[in-house]
Amino acid sequence: MKDFTVIPSPAQHLLLGEERTVPGSLSKKYLDRQEQRESNARSYPRRIPIAIREAKGIYVTDVDGRQYFDCLSGAGTLSLGHNHPVVKPFVLCSIVAYLYIPSI
């Protein structure tokens, strides 16, 4: 008989009847700090109240450890996922080769 490991679903709290508030306490801390320090001249939306810690495949994980399905990414991420193991080395090489950092 095979031994299976049960991996908790990102939405398992819904099945268990637990309530979660968004943003979580750590995300709220980062978002509040961002609100105080960041200019209104930004080029990205801030309507999703989470502070992202990491992303892999179709999942995005916030600083509170909550996982979300990323359905709002650009075309490249939607088709390949975040941190694709074939694409990532090429992106890192491009950053090193072409990133311009002016001296002050």
Task: Characterize this entry briefly.
The chain is an alpha+beta fold.
How would you describe this protein?
- This protein has a 3-stranded antiparallel beta sheet, with no helix packed on it.
- It has one domain.
- The mean pLDDT is 78.
- The protein is built from 4 helices and 3 strands.
- The protein has 104 residues and is of the alpha+beta class.
Average predicted local confidence, pLDDT: 78
How many separate helices? Answer: 4
Poorly predicted runs: none
Q: Please, how many domains?
A: 1
Percent helix among the residues?
25-40%
The dominant shape is globular
Write the layout of secondary structure elements.
Blueprint: H1 12-15, H2 25-37, E1 52-56, E2 59-62, E3 67-69, H3 75-80, H4 87-98
Antiparallel strand pairs: 1-2, 2-3
Kindly list the characteristics that best describe this protein.
104 residues; alpha+beta; three-stranded antiparallel β-sheet; 4 helices; 3 strands; 34% helix; globular
